[in-house]
Amino acid sequence: MITACGHAGVVNTVRYARRLTGLERVYAIIGGFHLSGPIFEPLIPAVIDAFGALRPELIVPTHCTGFRAIHRLAGAFPDAVVPSCVGTRLEL
């Protein structure tokens, strides 16, 4: 699952993609999760819980995910989170 800036909510987007494709397994969630700032940071625990249920093997939070969310995701999923910056390459 690759998302840009997840304004609809990254979990909503992943669930919708699963419904459209009929696929249950989510190997990777990559992109902006839109969890930065005082309005969205309270959603971080719910996103972590949902990711725990989805069990992606790879989580690559980018741009609008925000430092606090990236830090919390890395703590919750240390083997799955891959930091990303300009020039990062992923082989799936």
How does the major sheet shape up?
A: 3 strands, parallel
The strand count comes to 3
Give the overall shape: globular
Structural class by helix and strand composition: alpha/beta
What is the distance, rounded to the nearest whole angstrom, between the alpha carbons of the first and last residues? 12 Å
User: What order do the strands of the largest sheet run in, or round the barrel if closed?
Assistant: 1-2-3
Q: What would you report as the Rg, rounded to the nearest angstrom?
A: 12 Å
Strand coverage percent: 15-25%
Give the uncertain stretches in residue-range form: none
Query: How many individual helices?
Result: 3
Q: Give the count of structural domains.
A: 1
Q: How helical, in percent, are the residues?
A: 25-40%
Q: H/E series, N to C?
A: EHEHEH
The averaged pLDDT comes out at 94
Brief overview:
This protein is α/β, with parallel strands linked by helices and 92 residues long. The chain contains 3 helices and 3 strands, in the order βαβαβα.
What does this structure look like?
The protein has one domain (2-76). It has helices spanning 10-21, 44-54, 67-76, and strands at residues 2-5, 28-32, 58-62. It is α/β, with parallel strands linked by helices. The protein has three helices and three strands; from the N terminus they run βαβαβα. Strand 2 (28-32), helix 2 (44-54) and strand 3 (58-62) form a beta-alpha-beta unit. The longest helix has 12 residues, at 10-21.
